[in-house]
Design goal:
Blueprint: H1 3-35, H2 38-63, H3 71-86, H4 89-95, H5 103-106, H6 112-134, H7 139-159, H8 161-164, E1 170-171, H9 179-197, H10 200-210, H11 212-217, H12 222-248, E2 250-251, H13 258-271, H14 276-292, E3 300-301, E4 306-307, H15 313-328, H16 341-355
Antiparallel strand pairs: 1-2, 3-4
């Protein structure tokens, strides 16, 4: 068989497996939606939100090698943008009873998909505004500057009563409980980011991460690609923030506190900096684990010993667990590896070669 025919066969097999995986994903979502209670579905939906936010931060921190801590600020921008453009006018009037909302937003009401795109776009626009001064910094200085930006935004959102309703926040945001919406959005985000990472822009990001001087010597425009990475990560943070608003249906400036960035940073470090697969897996594991550990916050009577319960203890336990993972498994669950069909085909070939007579497999597919 010629190499061209073999490659064609491989591509057909990959296409078949991709279609099968998509069908399996929808079947899984259908089973979960019809058999899990609302609490478990909510946890899965929250995992999808954190997956989208984690993917955005991984573009910046994992693939480009920048150290940004301002992700929560972009999430807050996305959450408020989506809320303000989807809330019915009468609900806005009910919220803004101290200081009236500004005229352009008073009667504006857009569909959910448009609101998601607008939320990401506004967050990306804000990232471009701060990219000029911030991206000229490196390492810890960039982290401090981006964190300061997020805190500055939180203060501004608290003061802008006619736009954000100040410290009172927004209530009555259209709620979405469908698991298809959250994981459908997450799947779309995964596909888009995967295409970006595999493009010339993605290769430039990784080159900057590995060695800025060498990347610049190869003709890569450092500032342009850093800005693109920063804006793309902010876009998906804005989308994730919008999803968070639709999930919790009420937001206030505290959505932009550093704890949100810490949670997302914890997800990408545990999953692996530079791995989309690891980010998604870690988002599900971290979200589920934080919910499972809630029992340590409440009093427990063991009979021979009564545990009084310490609020926030679950975060202490989880942080210690994360610290142990980082110490003994520094690259995270996936490192920089990704799940792909080449790996599946390789394992299939190894299995068929082992099971074949005399070490020769029958019907093994060559991965050309």
């Amino acid at each position: 068989m010629s190499k061209g025919n073999n490659n064609s066969k491989i591509n057909k097999i990959k296409l078949f497996m991709t279609i099968a995986a998509i069908i399996l994903a929808f079947i899984t979502l259908y089973i979960a939606n019809n058999n899990l209670d609302s609490y478990k579905i909510r946890i899965l939906n929250l995992a999808a939100v954190y997956a989208v936010c984690g993917l955005g931060l991984n573009i910046i921190n994992g693939f480009t090698g920048l150290f940004s801590l301002g992700h929560a600020g972009f999430m807050m921008i996305g959450a408020y943008t989506a809320a303000l453009v989807t809330m019915p006018p009468d609900v806005k009037t009910m919220n803004f009873y101290i200081e009236p909302i500004i005229a352009p937003l008073a009667h504006l009401q857009l569909p959910i998909p448009v609101a998601l795109l607008l939320a990401g776009s506004i967050a990306a626009l804000f990232s471009l505004i701060i990219a000029v001064p911030v991206l000229r910094l490196k390492g810890d200085y960039l982290a401090i500057a981006s964190l300061g930006f997020a805190e500055m935004l939180r203060v501004l959102f608290t003061m802008a009563g006619s736009i954000t309703n100040g410290a009172l926040g927004l209530k009555g945001i259209p709620g979405i409980e469908s698991i298809y919406f959250y994981w459908g959005t997450a799947i779309v985000a995964i596909v888009i980011i995967k295409q970006l990472i595999n493009s010339s822009y993605g290769h430039a990001f990784k080159a900057i991460r590995d060695d800025e001087i060498a990347a610049q010597a190869m003709g890569i425009n450092l500032f342009y690609h850093k800005t693109l990475s920063f804006a793309t990560g902010a876009f998906f943070a804005g989308v994730g923030g919008a999803m968070m608003g639709f999930l919790v249906t009420t937001i206030d400036p505290n959505i932009g506190i550093f704890l949100q960035t810490f949670n997302i940073l914890m997800i990408i470090v545990l999953g692996g900096l530079g791995s989309l697969t690891g980010t998604v897996i870690s988002a599900v594991l971290v979200t589920s684990a934080l919910e499972l550990l809630r029992f340590v916050d409440a009093p427990i009577d063991f009979g021979f010993f009564a545990y009084p319960g310490i609020p926030g203890m679950r975060m202490v336990i989880f942080s210690l667990s994360l610290l142990l993972v980082i110490i003994f498994y520094q690259r995270g669950l996936m490192g920089m590896r990704e799940f792909n069909w080449d790996w599946v085909i390789k394992k299939y070939n190894q299995f068929t070669n082992r099971s074949g007579k005399g070490g020769k497999g029958h019907g093994a597919v060559k991965n050309g």
